[in-house]
Amino acid sequence: MKIIAISLTATALLLAASLTSFALARPDKAGPVLEGKDHPILLQRMVVTATLLPS
Q1: Percent of the chain scored above 90 by pLDDT?
Q2: Which residues are CB-neighbours of 43 under 8 A, at least 6 positions away?
């Protein structure tokens, strides 16, 4: 039982540590712009929504 409790605690800590980066991300901040060969490239996260296709 002790090993199971330690394993669950370690898993919870790893999950919390991995989710922290998403919590600290600021979506309202503009992404950096790189000068491309023909046009500038905007590096920013995008939110994509998907809808079902009609059958």
Answers
A1: 27
A2: 31, 32, 33, 34
